Amino acid sequence: MQLKNSQSGFGLFGMADDIAVQRGIAEFQAGRPVLIEAPGERLAAFPVDGLTQTDCEAFRALCAPAEVGLVVTARRARVIGFDAPTPVLVPLSGKDTSDAIWSIAAGLDGKPRAQMQPAGDAAAQAVVLAKLAQRLPALLVADAGTLAADVRAQMITVKADAVARFSTRIVDTLEIVSEARIPLEDGVSARFCVFRDAVGASPVAIIVGEPDFAAPVAVRVHSACLTGDVFGSRRCDCGAQLKLAIAQLSESGGGVVLYLEQEGRGLGLANKMRAYELQDGGLDTMDANMMLGFDDDERDYGVAARMLRMIGAKRVLLLTDNPGKLEALSEGGVDIAARVPLHTRINPENRRYLATKAARAGHWLEGMLEAAKPGRDAIKSPAE
């Protein structure tokens, strides 16, 4: 689906505001600052993700004499002792090193600072842009009013309201770009239907067997998990769920797996590894995500609803243990005829993870947890 705006004059390039947002995402991914504009404010914003001391000093020099601050999400602000409904501006001194800034943004020892205050809309949308770039949602910011004209000319300028609109419309840019037959293990026949959106994500609809789309279709909505799906990680049950879902769909005559690029509950692979490191220090999966400034689950299932509509699956039997997924898809217009449990076996390494999902996110896992009492290490995951 090509985004167009007859008033922009860009034709095939799409709408000017969308172009700016896409280029802003690319700049953040490349580790370069971006100008964010909102009524009454213009900020230079620079991701903290990957920040070095050299970067820190260069950004300060770029923005001088304007003072540099740190923007963190409301989730992260609460961790360091400041309660606000919006992202928060944390004042910095010229003596704050890159390590000190990282500690405030994502460290276990982050502490509140005097004069912390709610950030403006430009800073809030800079956080959204950072998330779209799959960077940590924390940024160095400074008033861009004193930037030299030649510096401003080199920087991408993005309107805050354009980021807000773009983030809600990405799903509408989804299109089918290719498909092919792929034979799977155990003689399972499948067709891979690849989609693409305006920021380059490539979710896949894996059509197993020959499902009857005139009847309710069995569907598994699966978020990509490199560690579990590919390498058989024992920290989660993702790989086991994927294998079990494909086996069940094949045995029942066919169905669909929607494979979404939402690694680590939507955080992205790098931030998922950071969350794992925090879990190794004692936090559970939800608290680790929030320690980094994310919501406990950043996934958006609007893309799944649109994919189902595009492949003609009008009524589904949803393979899931996640009530949030069921609710989100229903709100997205998916007609769910029934829910099918997808219980795998528990191993000692993922027991705590699954218990957290059951206790704190309400996942329907009681039967699994009851069947796998501590000490029964003989119980193994099908992924092993």
Task: Characterise the protein shown here.
This protein is of the alpha/beta class and 384 residues long. It has two domains: 11-168, Alpha-Beta Complex (DHBP synthase), CATH 3.90.870; 175-262 and 299-371, GTP cyclohydrolase II (Rossmann fold, 3-Layer(aba) Sandwich). Helix content is 38%, strand content 21%. It contains 16 helices and 14 strands. Strands 5-4-3-6-2-1-7 form a seven-stranded mixed sheet. It is globular, with a radius of gyration of 23 Å. The two termini are 41 Å apart.
- How are strands sequenced across the largest beta sheet? 5-4-3-6-2-1-7
CATH homologous superfamily label of the largest domain: GTP cyclohydrolase II
Shape label: globular
Unreliably modeled segments? 1-12, 376-384
Count of discrete domains: 2
**Beta-strand percent range:** 15-25%
Produce a short descriptive summary:
The protein is of the alpha/beta class and 384 residues long.
How is the secondary structure organized here?
Elements: H1 16-29, E1 34-38, E2 41-47, H2 53-63, E3 69-72, H3 74-79, E4 88-91, H4 98-106, E5 117-118, H5 121-132, E6 138-143, H6 149-154, E7 157-159, H7 160-169, E8 175-183, E9 189-196, E10 204-209, E11 217-223, H8 226-230, H9 238-251, E12 254-260, H10 263-266, H11 269-280, H12 285-291, H13 302-311, E13 315-319, H14 323-331, E14 335-340, H15 351-361, H16 366-371
Parallel strand pairs: 1-7, 11-12, 11-13, 13-14
Antiparallel strand pairs: 1-2, 2-6, 3-4, 3-6, 4-5, 8-9, 9-10, 10-12
Helix pairs in contact: 5-7, 11-12
